[in-house]
Design goal:
- By secondary structure, this protein is α/β, with parallel strands linked by helices.
- Among the domains are: about 170 residues, Leucine-rich repeat, LRR (right-handed beta-alpha superhelix); about 140 residues, Galactose-binding lectin (Jelly Rolls, Sandwich), CATH 2.60.120.430; about 190 residues, Orthogonal Bundle (Transferase(Phosphotransferase), domain 1), CATH 1.10.510.10.
- The protein has nine helices and 48 strands.
- The strands form nine sheets. It has a 15-stranded mixed β-sheet that branches. Strands 26-27-25-39-33-36 form a six-stranded mixed β-sheet. Strands 28-29-32-37-34-35 form a six-stranded antiparallel β-sheet.
- β26 and β27 form a beta hairpin.
- The N terminus and C terminus are likely disordered.
């Protein structure tokens, strides 16, 4: 009976009875019996499949089973008859739909059609197949979750990663109880995780990253006790990480990132002694780092970055000699930086924390595999014996005369001259944990993360275009800097003020041809001065193709002489096209120029003629407000800039020079949550202040005035509250001139077109009883005062 190989199914038994009668006719005897032939019906099926999808290498003049893309069992009828048990058509770039004919191969157990260009749906006929392994990874298949797959109950290994499936994950997935490996990452699935997943108790590998799911990470996943690999990165799920995960003691690879929600304490993973790769990144985990990590003898990769962790790095970490990568970036860790960490030969990134210097702490940013940028607490900022790169916000060490007003970087490539502008070279190859400061000390970059699963010992952090670019300014796009996780560029020692930031992109890794390499989806976020300006940014989609340039332009404000541009991968997009390890931010060039012209923040001087022309001679129709300081008018400058003009009630007791000087100092305070004061006009008996225009007026009107009331949902209200808090924090603790507002109220909170909150009237005193307004330099009682250059106390 061994020759019957029953796994083919009982239906095969009846076909064999008939075929047995014809075996001598079909195959002959004697010498021909030494050369087994494919079962004739299957040969015809393979011919149909080859014709439909374009397989050219199957040779039907001999036995197609000899092909490397096919596996056969030739033990039937005394080793004279073969049946197809496996088909492996990987990276073939087929552009057809999936043929139903695969279901006519009764012994087919393994089918791998990964990394191709198949489109459409999975055929319903496939439900009759007895497959054990099926990979459709990296195609253009679409529609809702293929219900036909839930009826192939023999499946033990299924991958539909990197397609265009959408909708809910059906509860029928619970029918696949023999499943050991399930990969559905990088699709567009929505809704909560179905409880039916808990029925797949044989799972050893579950990956659901890069989807658009909702709801919480479900505790029923803790029932999958055989799990060895679990990946939930960038799927839009909410925390906390369930406590039942502590029961998954067989895990060797756990990756959870970018959870939404308020977060939780550190989960108990102490029993996971097989752990090799642990990623709990940006999960809002708070509290201290557990010491049990030191007992994980197999741990090779630890990423706890961008959480809310506090306390010291545990002493037990010193025992983790086998760990190749440690990422603790972006937390609030304190204490001294451990000496053992500085002596490591492997990669460690502890940047963006709150460490103190200690008696033997580093005073320089190391150039090896340890990244320490912004690793010291704000209290260390006044120390002169440590490099500025260690301090919060990477402060400028230069004197005022050395400030710069522009920046141009050709990211990942050599120097280039474009339209007469020199873009500086940026060719440092490393990036797993590195801080690089350019020779001119006018810019720097910090890169964190290694490309995972690519089996490459030396990652490349610079991409080179595989084809000749014929686009304008091609020298800016031929190469680009990459990062698998976090990449921050700094503009150092910049003049304070308003700037235009231009970010140049071109997708040069994924191709624009008819190959599976065109299916990659790179998605990442961009922050400028801490504010997200791009979310799930897809270069290729925005530029309508790969190899095509696209430039994103933003206005930002430098307040402490440092500009920060941050690129961050939040677990989104594909990670396995063209191969594993292709994902993360990519940037081609950066251009930063000051915003001068009509709104010159350094001069801040306007003529009365300009103001009258802008407001149509203070036309009552342009009046947008009235307050204790006077009337406010909307204006339009000749260059098209909309402004708000505050007409003070009367002239200050101070002279024009003093008034302008003090207004100049206030206008130097630039922050995203402060209303920008562009300047003033002091002609004749006029005292006019020129501000940026705020489209939604003030918070008081948005909340309490019926005809102007805005429907503010809770996320918007939360954003407004955070904006107010950030503005106050800047005035109190971060600005060069420390100011106590003394009149925070809803009418002094203005809202821009995006409903971002900005504080107004900071630095202006209440009207005196005689009707005059002025800026006072008298210290007011015990009210908090602040300092400018350590000499001048201010009170408002």
């Amino acid at each position: 009976m061994g020759a019957w190989r029953l796994p083919c199914g009982w239906r095969l038994l009846f076909s064999m009875c008939f075929i047995g009668l014809l075996a001598e006719v079909v195959h002959g005897a004697g010498a021909d019996a030494l050369h087994p032939r494919l079962f004739p019906a299957e040969a015809r099926t393979l011919r149909r499949i080859a014709a439909k999808i374009g397989v050219a290498h199957w040779n039907f003049s001999v036995n197609p089973c000899d092909s490397e893309s096919m596996k056969c069992d030739c033990s039937f009828y005394n080793n004279t008859t073969c049946h197809v048990t496996g088909i492996f058509l990987k990276e073939m770039n087929f552009t057809s739909q999936l043929p139903p004919d695969f279901a006519d191969l009764p012994c087919l157990l393994q089918l791998d059609l990964s990394r191709s260009l198949f489109h459409g749906a999975v055929p319903d006929k496939w439900a009759q197949m007895r497959l054990q392994g099926l990979s459709l990874m990296g195609n253009r298949l679409s529609g809702t979750f293929p219900m036909v797959l839930t009826r192939i109950t023999t499946l033990t290994n299924l991958s539909i990663e990197g397609n265009e499936f959408h909708g809910l994950i059906p509860h029928e997935i619970g029918h696949l109880t023999q499943m050991e490996k399930l990969i559905i990452s990088a699709n567009e699935f929505t809704g909560p995780l179905p409880a039916a997943l808990s029925l797949l108790t044989n799972l050893t590998d579950l990956r659901i990253s890069g989807n658009n799911l909702s709801g919480k990470v479900r505790d029923f996943l803790g029932k999958l006790r055989k799990l060895e690999k679990l990946q939930i990165e960038g799927s839009l799920l909410e925390g906390p990480i369930p406590s039942d995960f502590s029961k998954l003691t067989n895990l060797s690879d756990l990756r959870i990132s970018d959870l939404r929600g308020s977060g939780s304490a550190f989960p108990d993973l102490s029993a996971m002694q097989s752990m090799k790769t642990l990623v709990l990144r940006n999960c809002s985990i708070s509290g201290s780092i557990p010491s049990y990590f030191g007992d994980m003898k197999n741990l090779k990769h630890l990423d706890l970055s961008f959480n809310k962790l506090t306390g010291k790095i545990p002493d037990s970490f010193a025992k983790m000699g086998s760990v190749d990568y440690i990422y603790l970036t972006g937390n609030s860790l304190t204490g001294n930086i451990p000496e053992w960490l500085l002596r490591r030969n492997n990669i460690a990134d502890i940047s963006f924390n709150n460490f103190t210097m200690g008696s033997s702490g580093p005073t320089q940013c190391l150039q090896g595999g340890i990244n320490l940028v912004e690793s010291y607490s704000p209290e260390m900022i006044s120390l002169n014996n440590i490099n500025p790169c260690l301090k919060k916000n990477f402060p400028c060490a230069a004197s005022n005369g050395q400030y710069r007003s522009s920046l141009h970087i050709n990211c990942g490539d050599k120097e280039a001259i474009v339209n007469g502008v020199k873009y500086e070279t940026d060719t440092v190859p490393k990036g797993a944990s590195v801080l690089y400061v350019n020779p001119g000390s006018n810019w720097a970059f910090s890169s964190t993360g290694n490309f995972m699963d690519n089996n490459i010992n030396d990652d490349s952090y610079i991409a080179t275009s595989t084809s000749k670019l014929t686009i304008p300014s091609s020298q800016l796009y031929a190469r680009a800097r990459l990062s698998p996780l976090s990449l921050t560029y700094y503009g150092l020692c910049m003049h304070n003020g308003s700037y235009t930031v231009k970010l140049h992109f071109a997708e040069i890794v994924f191709t624009n041809d008819s190959t599976y390499c065109s299916l990659g989806k790179r998605k990442f976020n961009v922050f400028i001065q801490g504010k997200m300006v791009l979310e799930d940014f897809d270069i290729e989609q925005s530029a309508a193709g790969s190899g095509k340039p696209i430039m994103k332009t933003f206005t930002t404000y430098v307040t402490n002489h440092t500009l920060e541009i941050h690129f961050y991968w939040a677990g989104r997009g594909t990670t396995g096209i063209p191969y594993r390890g292709f994902y993360g931010p990519l940037i081609s060039a950066i251009s930063v120029v000051p915003n001068l012209g009509a709104l010159d923040l350094q001069i801040g001087s306007f003529t009365l003629r300009q103001i009258k022309a802008a407001t149509r001679n203070f036309d009552p129709a342009n009046k947008i407000g009235e307050g204790g300081f006077g009337s406010v008018y909307k204006g339009l400058l000749s260059d098209g800039t909309i402004i708000a003009v505050k007409q003070l009630s009367s002239k200050s007791k101070q002279g024009n020079r003093e008034f302008v000087n003090e207004i100049g100092m206030i206008s130097a305070l630039q922050h995203p949550n402060l209303v920008r004061l562009y300047g003033c006009c002091t002609e004749g008996n006029q005292l006019l202040l020129v501000y940026e225009y705020m489209e939604h007026n003030c918070l008081a009107r948005a909340l309490f005035v019926e005809q102007y009331r805005l429907r503010l949902d809770w996320p918007t209200r939360h954003k407004i509250c955070l904006g107010i808090a950030r503005g106050i924090a800047y005035l109190h603790e971060e600005s060069a001139i420390r100011i106590v507002h003394r009149d925070i109220k809803a009418s002094n909170i203005l809202l821009d077109k995006d409903l971002d909150a900005k504080i107004s009237d900071f630095g202006l005193a209440k009207l005196n009883e005689d009707g005059h307004t002025h800026i006072s330099t008298k210290v007011a009682g015990t009210m908090l005062v602040s300092y400018m250059r350590g000499e001048l106390s201010w009170s408002w």
